[in-house]
Structures are given as structure tokens and as C-alpha cells.
Amino acid sequence: MSLPRLRLETSLRTPEGRWILDADEVHHLVRVRRCVVGDRVEGLLPGWRVILSLEKNQERWEGVECERIPSPETSLHLLLLAGILKEDAWNALLRNAVEVGVAQILPLRCERSVPKGAVLSAPRRMERWQRILLEATKQCGASSPPHLFSPLEVEEIDPVTLPPECYAAILDGGARPLGSVQCGPDVAFAVGPEGDFSPREKERFREMGFVPVSLGPRILRAPTAVTVGCSWFSLTREGLCRTDDALSL
Ligand code: SAH
Predict the structure, then answer these.
(1) The domain 77-245 belongs to what CATH superfamily?
(2) pLDDT tens digit sequence for 16-42
(3) Measured from the CA of 218, which atom of ligand 1 is nearest?
(4) Does the C-beta of 71 come closer than 6 Å to ligand 1?
(5) Top CATH class, 5-70
(6) Distance 111 CA to ligand 1 centre (A)
(7) pTM of whole model > 0.85?
(8) For residues 248 and 65, what is the distance between their CA atoms, to the nearest angstrom?
(9) Looking at ligand 1, which residue's alpha carbon is closest to its atom 9?
């Protein structure tokens, strides 16, 4: 069974290798995971997993560093462009993106995105999204959350900033089956909002060189489409899906 996890950015490390643990991070470990003195927990830092043994010094929880494990190098750098959704679905999409190893997220204010207006660019909303991403790293053990860009409209994307390979999940006929894609190490993947991309947005993606891909015959909810598409890219990069075998069956 995996160890209970906490993030360590907000805790303090003494020169002797003791961690004075952030009270909010400890709260979940003690109240929900029922951790006690002597238990081992896993601290997450960008690039590292730090195994700690819990101690209590008066009312303060501390962690003694037992082991520091570098996070494995990933073979894929994936930029996800996702149409902004209603709150619950969007939060699910963010969590799914963390679980499947997305490196960067660009929220798209699409023509058919339901939540519209200034509230989308509010710093408080960005903070909230960042917090959801950080919390999700604890669930899946990712050492760092994806980088979150400020929302843009599709028209505002600068193609020069995009990676060499770009794919867009497109429902119309003629899209290439995702299963035939064997991607390189640096990829962008776009998924539309509940109301789908508008014809103008699809045209703009085409102009920017995005290859339209199909995720199968059924219409998936956007958070599911993110999981399916991003998993395919990361599993093929990790050599866990053999497209040559799949095609010869
Ligand atoms: N409301 C729309 C569906 C939007 S699904 C309708 O009923 O037609 C949200 C997004 O998920 C789409 O914009 C697309 O990017 C992606 N998506 C969902 N299922 C897909 C599929 N089978 N193939 C390709 N893209 C898909």
C-alpha cells in the first residue's frame, strides 16, 4: 500500500534534515489518514519524493528525513489545451490531467464555454485551480503539479509557442484514429468544452497545424476525453502501448 502523502513546499527544513511540517498539510494526515508518531509518510517536492518518519514536538508535528528519491524522468512533455467547463466538470478535468502526467495546462475561453466573462480571469479562480492541481498531486504521487497558464481564447494562441506536434480531439468525421498516433516527446493536445469547439475554432486549430484525432465512436465528456487522449500519448511514449502490434491484429 502507498504511504500517506503531503506537499513539502510550505514546510521548513532544518539543516539537520528535520522537517517542521505545515499545520494544514499535517491536518489531513492526522485527521483523515489517522497517522500517528512513528508512521512513515511521503513528502512531495518538485523532482523529489522524501520519505519522512513522523514525530511530535509538543504541539508541533515534525518529520525526520529517512530517504530522498528522485522522481523518474518523464519521456513526454504534454501541453493540454482545454475548453473551460462548468465548475465541477472543470475541477474533474484538472484532477484527471494531473493523474495522467500533463506538464502544462492552457485553459481556453471557448465560444461555447458555459462560464463566461471576467470571473474567468479572476486571480482567485486561478489560485483555486492551482490548489486543486496541488491537491491532486497528493492523490497520485506526482512530484509537481502541471504549470497552469492564464486562460486564452483560441484566437489568442501564438502558434510559435506550441510544440512541434499538435493534436485536437475533434468529433467530426475524417479525424485520424488516436490509436494510429505514435507521438514524439513534445506534444500539445486540445479538448473542447461541453458545447464542443465552434466551427471557427476548429478552423483556427487546423490553420495552426493541429491534427484532428478521434477518440472513438462515442461522445465523451471533456474530462473523460482528457484522460483518454493524454493516457494514450503518455502510455505510447512509455512503451506500454505497441501501436504496431495493435494495428496488425
Ligand atoms: N456537446 C457535444 C460534445 C462535446 S464533448 C456534442 O454533443 O456533440 C467535449 C469535447 O470532448 C469535444 O469538443 C472534443 O474535443 C472531445 N471529444 C469527446 N468525445 C470525442 C470523440 N469521440 N472523439 C474526439 N473528440 C471527442
Answers:
(1) SPOUT methyltransferase, trefoil knot domain (3.40.1280.10)
(2) 889 999 999 999 899 988 999 999 999
(3) 22
(4) no
(5) mainly beta
(6) 15
(7) yes
(8) 50
(9) 222
